[in-house]
Amino acid sequence: MKKFLYIICAATISTPTLACTGITLHARDGATIAARTIDWARAATDNIYMIIPRGHTEQSLLPDGSQNGLKFTSRYGFVGLGAERAEFVIDGTNETGLNAALFYFPDYGKYQKYDEAMRDITLSDVQVVSWILANFSSIDEVRANINNVRIVGTEPGASTVHWRITEPGGRVVVMEIVNGIPTFHEDEIGTITNSPGFDWHHTNLNNYVNLKSGTAEQMQLGPDTLKSFSGGTGLLGLPGDFSSPSRFVRAAFFSNMTIEQPDGPNTINQAFHILNNFDVPFGTAFAPGREPVKMPSATQWTIASDLKNKTVYYHTMYNRTLRKIDMNNINFETVPFQSGPLDDVKRETIIPVQIQIAAQE
To answer: Does position 46 have pLDDT exceeding 80, yes or no?
Structure first.
């Protein structure tokens, strides 16, 4: 349990190993795709999926280590991906199509202090996604009920997190808790990374007002004619590092410049192509020779959820083959609570090409 809490809530913004990036895409037929990476380089975690039925009861972890906080029973069934424990959903979608996801948010958030007298309404920050998906079908319902709970951190010295909530109709908000007060930001460009706060990231986009899709026009500079070496020079100056501000800028431009696809399945494919740009190569997170573990990537898994068609897709650092969970095939009234590993076998799926080895007569 503590391993998971440290992974998601590492103590300082200088920790170079958490770099989750989220985007939202929209198809012509009205499908909304909520997609993101989950990045952690210090250890290979036990990454799992969860199927939560209606009527499933969960109780919140508390800062004293007990699990005697807020108790809630699922009004809606949902599918989630997470790590270590099935209660700790990092990204999930419920049967109404509402999606919620947790993102690292160090130094800029501040929860209320834990009050033992309010134990019954205290909710661990790493269980907020489960609470949202179990109880609500819209952002407005979450907003109407958020002050009925007290969200706290449960690991001493751990960082805060913030959340993205997405409706199947395309509305996206980012929820941040600053000075103990939950604040909802309408996220019309559908992008989220980590610290600083939401407003700062959007102000920072003004530093890239010159960027555009396509190829820069040639210009004359004295006797020299300056022209592009290749296509895509309209994005010269786009930041390429893996810091949160730079990833936010890249994600905002890539996702909003992408060509709109006809439907959800095609848009899912587009989402994974965009998020390929945010895979964190393992060697970039540490100085040479300082890598604590050997893994294929610091991006442990990537998920894209079609909220209209209620399908969840993911791949992992071990296996880039897309896996799919079709929520339409799940009866959330009768399905048992269950969880399982994201990878049955931790290696790439390789399909040999069938070669004709002899001439046909």
So the answer is: yes
